[in-house]
UniProtKB/TrEMBL annotation:
Protein name: Carbohydrate kinase PfkB domain-containing protein
Residue ranges constituting the Carbohydrate kinase PfkB domain according to the UniProt record: 42-301
Alphabetically ordered keywords of this record: Kinase, Transferase
Family matches, as InterPro entries: Carboh/pur_kinase_PfkB_CS, PfkB_dom, Ribokinase-like
Kinase found in the keyword field: yes
Length: 323
């Protein structure tokens, strides 16, 4: 029996560090734009390529945390697809559910890194998603995937209903899923054990609330057992219907933020899979995320259990707080 099956897209990310740019924000500083000189040649300070994609990152993170992990995705029959499968195999992730689309190339993203913040240019190749017959698993992690994913989503829900004991579902919706709106996500949310969204995504789903507890309440009302909201440098918040917890971030030197959310989520899920309590899961997620942002790319900084324990000891004075 598997501990975790991660479902979503995989990509190859090209990380482009730039210095010649500027940022323009609204007066409230809630909406900002990265600005480059139009029709100009922009010098690049550094260029890196890394295997990535939300589901791919989570599968790697789960394997490093000692979970028996598999990965469902569709890759192209090209060099990128081969890089993805090699990387997953090297991490000990099962590839039994990975499909090769011989008619289309693999997904690709360009990550513009300016002053440690990232802006991502994403292209998902059109796919025909069809979930293979999955073996029983303790956790399903369903995350960002391309358009035309509705039949896959129905298959996931059927799998959850018919598998005994019923797997836990961790849901981190991506752009295509969020654009469907709350009404189209309700069936998934009602079967979700843990929902992961950032503050902007949460407000996009349920509207603004007076404070973070109110926003957590609104998310909880949509169906998930546990609602988690990440809010960048302000930390993370969780509500399970009874308790509300807040966790500050660790004061690490940030190099590049791609994968911060994925690493937090798999740290959180990994803690629950290892029998940890809710506030401890916040610590695991925070530690994993803190490590990832000190490296370029979403996977090099993913921690083992020992690495998370070392990180939490290092920042032992920074603890979750009930709110």
């Amino acid at each position: 029996m598997l501990d975790l099956i991660s479902i979503g897209d995989a990509t190859l990310d090209t990380f482009v560090k730039i210095n010649d740019a500027s940022v323009m924000c609204t007066l409230e500083k809630e909406v900002c734009m990265l600005c480059l000189n139009y029709a100009d040649k922009i010098p690049i300070a550094r260029l890196d390529q890394k295997v990535a994609g939300n589901a791919c990152n989570v599968a790697t993170g789960g394997a490093r945390l000692g979970l028996k992990t598999a990965f469902y995705s569709i890759v192209g029959n090209d060099d990128i697809g081969k890089r993805v499968t090699r990387a997953m195999k090297s991490e000990g992730v099962s590839l039994k559910y990975v499909e090769v689309d011989k008619g289309r190339p693999s997904n690709y993203s360009v990550v513009l890194n300016y002053k440690s913040e990232r802006t991502i240019l994403v292209y998902h190749h059109p796919r025909h998603y069809k979930m293979p017959k999955l073996e029983p698993a303790n956790w399903i992690y369903y995350t960002s995937i391309g358009a035309n994913h509705e039949s896959l989503e129905r298959s996931i829900l059927k799998y959850l209903r018919t598998t005994h004991p019923r797997p836990h579902l961790a849901f981190n919706p991506g752009t295509h899923q969020l654009r469907k709106g709350l009404s189209r996500l309700r069936d998934v949310l009602r079967m979700t054990t843990v929902l992961f969204v950032n503050k902007e995504e949460a407000e996009g789903l349920v509207g603004r609330a007076g404070d973070m507890k109110g926003l957590l309440d609104r998310l909880k009302e949509t169906g998930p057992e546990i609602s988690v909201i990440t809010d960048g440098d302000k930390g993370s918040f969780v509500h399970n219907g009874g308790e509300y917890w807040y966790m500050p971030i660790y004061p690490v030197k940030v190099i590049e933020k791609t994968g911060a959310g994925d690493s937090f989520a798999i740290g959180f899920v990994g803690a629950l899979a290892h029998g940890k309590k809710l506030h401890e899961a916040l610590q695991w997620g925070t530690a994993n995320s803190a490590s990832v942002v000190t490296k370029i790319g979403p996977q090099p900084g993913l921690l083992t259990v020992a690495g998370i324990q070392q990180m939490t000891r290092k920042y032992k004075k920074i603890k979750p707080k009930k709110i």
